[in-house]
Task: inverse folding
C-alpha cells in the first residue's frame, strides 16, 4: 500500500542513504581510480564474447544505444565506484543474453517461425494500478506472464516445469536478498517479487533502449536519444524474445506491462498489429511525487550526488510527455477497439466486476474458478502489504498541485471521465 503524506518535512535536494560498510569502503577505495571499472564499449563486448565463447549476437541494433548510454553515464551520471561496477555488469549481461538468445534460436529455427497472437499490454502512468492488474492476470494460467527471472538472464528455455524452479530464479532470489541489505528503502518503495511477474523493461534493456537506465541514473542525453529513437528494432527484438520465452506455452496469450509503452504506441501496433491494450488512469497528483521519490531512491544506489528536485522535474516532464504522445497517437492513428480505458478507482473499489468487464472485452471467459483464485490472491496480498508505507511529499520535491495540474492539463481534459 502506498501512503501519500502531504505534510512530511521536506528532504534536502541532495540525498545520501546509509549503506553497508563494504559498500562504502569499495566506493572510498574506488574514488582513487575514477576510470575503473571500465565502461568502454570494447571492454564490454570483448568480455561478453570471451565469457560465453559465442560470437553471434544477431542484429547490431543495440550498439548505438549502448554507446549513448555509456557516454551519457560517464559524463552526466556522477557514478561512484559501485555504480560504475553495476552499470558495467548490466551491459555485459545484456550482450551475453543477446549471444545466448541468438544461439538458442539458431539451434531451433522453429522458434523464429512461431507467432505471438493478440498480446495484451497493460499501460498507464506509473502508480496507476498497472501492477495490481498484472498480478491479477498472473493468477490465470490461461495467460502467459513475463516472470521476473526471465528479465535477469537468458538461460534454460522456459517450460511449465521450470518456471518456478531453475538456477536463474535461485540466483535472482539470492541476489535480491543481498540487494535488500544494500538498499532496503528501494524494496519498500517498489515491491519486487522474484517468483512473480515483471515489467518488460528488461527485454528492452537487451537492446539498450530502456527507461530503466534513466530511472537509476541521471543521464539526460540518453533520455533525449531514447525519447526520439525509432523503436522498431527494439520492439522487433522484444518480439523475438517473447517467441523464445513462450515457445513451450502454445495457445497462451502474453500479458505484458510497462508504463513506458505509452510513449511508443505506434511501434507496438507496428510490430504487434493485433495487440490489445488496457490503459489505466489515475490523477497525476498521486503519480508524480511517487515516481520522483522512487527514482531519487534508485539513483542513490549508483551515485552519492542525487538532486531530488532535479529528479522530480525530470519525471514530471517525462510522464507528461509520454501521456501527451499517447493522446496524440490515439487521436490520429489508433483503430477502434484497440484500447480499453480503466479508472484506477474502479479496479481498486470493484476489482472483480472490473476484471469481468476486461475479460469480456478481451473475449475471454471470466469463470468462477478464475474469480476465486484472484480473490484468494487479493486477500493474501492485502495482508502482506499491511503497514508497509512509501512516504513522500510534494514539498520535498519543490512540486505543487497547480504545477502538476498545469503540466497535465491535456490529460485532465482528455480523460476527465476516468480520473
Result:
Amino acid at each position: 500500500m502506498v501512503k501519500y503524506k502531504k505534510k512530511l518535512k521536506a528532504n534536502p535536494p541532495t540525498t545520501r542513504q546509509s549503506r553497508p560498510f563494504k559498500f562504502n569502503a569499495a566506493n572510498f577505495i574506488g574514488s582513487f581510480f575514477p576510470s575503473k571499472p571500465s565502461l568502454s564499449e570494447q571492454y564490454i563486448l570483448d568480455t561478453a564474447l570471451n565469457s560465453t565463447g559465442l560470437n553471434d549476437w544477431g542484429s547490431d541494433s543495440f550498439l548505438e544505444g549502448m554507446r549513448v548510454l555509456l557516454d551519457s553515464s560517464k559524463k552526466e551520471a556522477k557514478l561512484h565506484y559501485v555504480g560504475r561496477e553495476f552499470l558495467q555488469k548490466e551491459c555485459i549481461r545484456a550482450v551475453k543474453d543477446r549471444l545466448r538468445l541468438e544461439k538458442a534460436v539458431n539451434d531451433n529455427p522453429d522458434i523464429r517461425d512461431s507467432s505471438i497472437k493478440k498480446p495484451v499490454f497493460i499501460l498507464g502512468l506509473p502508480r496507476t494500478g498497472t501492477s495490481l492488474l498484472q498480478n491479477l492476470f498472473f493468477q490465470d494460467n490461461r495467460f502467459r506472464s513475463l516472470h521476473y527471472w526471465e528479465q535477469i538472464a537468458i538461460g534454460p528455455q522456459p517450460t511449465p516445469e521450470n518456471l518456478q524452479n531453475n538456477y536463474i530464479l535461485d540466483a535472482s532470489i539470492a541476489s535480491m536478498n543481498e540487494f535488500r541489505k544494500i538498499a532496503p528503502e528501494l524494496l519498500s518503495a517498489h515491491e519486487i517479487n522474484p517468483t512473480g511477474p515483471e515489467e518488460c523493461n528488461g527485454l528492452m534493456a537487451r537492446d539498450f533502449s530502456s527507461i530503466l537506465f534513466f530511472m537509476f541514473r541521471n543521464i539526460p542525453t540518453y533520455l533525449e536519444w531514447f525519447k526520439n529513437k525509432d523503436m522498431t528494432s527494439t520492439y522487433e527484438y522484444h518480439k523475438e524474445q517473447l517467441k523464445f520465452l513462450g515457445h513451450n506455452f502454445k495457445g497462451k496469450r502474453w500479458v505484458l506491462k510497462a508504463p513506458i509503452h505509452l510513449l511508443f504506441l505506434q511501434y507496438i501496433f507496428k510490430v504487434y498489429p493485433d495487440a490489445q491494450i488496457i490503459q489505466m488512469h489515475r490523477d497525476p497528483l498521486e503519480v508524480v511525487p511517487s515516481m520522483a521519490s522512487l527514482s531519487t531512491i534508485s539513483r542513490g544506489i549508483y551515485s552519492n550526488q542525487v538532486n531530488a528536485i532535479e529528479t522530480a522535474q525530470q519525471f514530471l516532464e517525462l510522464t507528461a510527455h509520454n501521456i501527451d504522445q499517447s493522446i496524440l497517437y490515439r487521436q490520429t492513428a489508433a483503430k477502434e477497439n484497440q484500447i480499453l480505458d480503466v479508472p484506477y478507482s474502479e479496479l481498486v473499489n470493484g476489482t472483480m466486476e472490473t476484471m469481468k468487464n476486461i475479460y469480456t472485452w478481451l473475449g475471454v471467459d471470466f469463470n468462477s474458478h478464475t474469480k476465486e483464485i484472484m480473490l484468494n490472491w487479493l486477500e493474501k496480498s492485502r495482508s502482506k502489504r499491511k503497514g508497509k508505507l512509501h512516504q513522500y511529499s510534494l514539498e520535498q520535491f519543490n512540486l505543487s498541485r497547480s504545477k502538476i495540474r498545469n503540466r497535465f492539463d491535456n490529460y485532465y481534459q482528455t480523460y476527465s471521465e476516468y480520473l
